[in-house]
Amino acid sequence: MDEVSDDHDIRSFLASIDIGDLCGGVVTEITRSRGAAVTLDGFPTKALGSVGPLDLPWGDARLGALEVGRRITAEVTAVDLDERVVRLSMAAAAHPELWAFLKGLERHAILFGTVAAIESFGVFVALDDGPAHPVFPGVGFITYPELAWQHFEAVEEVVRLGQRVSCAFLQFDTWNGEARLSLRATQPDPFQDFAADNEVGRTLPGKVTRLVPFGAFVRVAEGIEGLVPLEELSWTSVEKPEDVLRVGADVLVLITGLDQQRRLLRLSLRQASPSPAGPDR
Question: Domain range holding 134?
Answer without folding.
Answer: 97-186
